[in-house]
Design a protein that fits this description.
12 helices, 2% strand, two-stranded antiparallel ribbon, mainly alpha, globular, A middle domain of Talin 1
């Protein structure tokens, strides 16, 4: 009788645990996925950069390839897993939403803390490349289909831009940011065994974390009856942009925020030419019409606003041009308004 009584008592408890797990599992997966991506991306970049330095790769090349790729590694791995899971719209939302968050949230809040310095190099090179990437990304999304040959075209454009950046900075070494060079040089002191360990552990956890995040995001989208595009634009995009926000705010508070604009422009270019392109490798991706008419156009408008403010600042401020604090409000305000539009669209 005692055994039977215990069985009766345990069964409801197990059932309750099962219900709680089914209820909260997607949200736990999203949280665990984000934490894993943030932690593993840092290890992956450090390990890969240290390995490259030990094999004799120039610091300049490491910064423009491995470090640049590594900062977008969470978005790229999420995009790959989304494509494999037949959730390509999640990747599109992640790419476009991350660009919106990088400008409206990251730069908006950072500029409110301290004016953002603008180097003329950004206007003559990175801004031009980001403008080109934005235009080509819009052309790809315009017909609401992403084909394999368009994916290859986006990848080819990214490789060509990286080639141009490497050649330009090789000809003008002073263009390399001192803070960036110092950080990469520090990685050369990591032992070879530790570098390989960081690289391997970081890569494995990046893959696992992105898979967990994609599962949690798709389950959440199904549960609330919203599209994967919306989940990518909001939850996933903001989550993958949080490390950049934290780093930029911390740098601004310490007075070291000279490369904030460059980091965001580089990240946005990678998102358009790599993250958004990945799902097209697996199959022709058909996206919701709102991905272009609402989301891409909002991103394009915010990008144009940022570039316009940078051009005006450089033209009117002869020396040490900066984006003033009020520019932060001009970026953050439209981003909040965009979220209001998304919220109303789901009501």
């Amino acid at each position: 009788m005692q055994i039977s009584c215990n069985s009766v008592n345990v069964a409801p408890f197990n059932y309750l645990l099962s219900v709680m797990f089914e209820t909260f599992a997607p949200y736990i997966a999203i949280f665990v996925g984000f934490v894993g991506l943030i932690w593993s991306a840092d290890r992956f970049v450090n390990g890969a950069a240290a390995m490259a330095a030990q094999f004799g790769m120039p610091t300049l090349l490491i910064g423009l390839t491995i470090v640049a790729f590594g900062t977008s590694a969470p978005e790229i791995l999420v995009s790959i897993n989304a494509g494999l899971a037949d959730a390509g719209e999640l990747a599109i939302g992640n790419a476009v939403g991350s660009n919106l968050a990088n400008i409206g949230l990251v730069l908006g809040i950072t500029a409110l803390i301290a004016p953002l310095p603008i180097s003329r190099r950004l206007l003559s090179r990175e801004v031009v490349y980001v403008a080109a990437a934005t235009a080509v990304g819009g052309w790809v999304l315009y017909d609401l289909n992403i084909y394999w040959y368009e994916t290859l075209a986006l990848f080819a454009m990214l490789c060509f831009i990286i080639f141009l950046l490497i050649r330009q900075r090789s000809e003008h070494p002073a263009m390399a940011e001192a803070e960036e060079v110092e950080e990469i040089t520090h990685l050369t002191h990591i032992s070879r065994a530790k570098a390989w360990s960081l690289f391997a552990v970081g890569l494995v956890l990046l893959i696992i974390s992105s898979d967990i995040l994609v599962w949690g995001a798709t389950e959440t989208a199904t549960r609330f009856g919203v599209s994967e595009l919306i989940i990518g634009l909001t939850v996933v995009a903001i989550g993958t942009s949080l490390p950049e926000l934290a780093a930029s705010v911390a740098s601004a508070l310490k007075g070291h925020h000279d490369i904030a604009l460059g980091n965001v422009l580089g990240s946005n270019m990678f998102n358009l030419l790599a993250v958004m392109a990945v799902p097209g490798l697996f199959d022709t991706l058909r996206v919701d019409s709102a991905a272009f008419s609402r989301d891409y156009l909002a991103m394009g408008a915010l990008t144009a606003l940022l570039m316009g403010m940078m051009i005006v600042a450089v033209a009117t401020q002869k020396r040490a041009a900066k984006l003033p604090r009020w520019a932060g409000l001009l970026m953050l305000g439209p981003y909040i308004a965009y979220f209001v539009v998304l919220f109303k669209a789901q009501m």
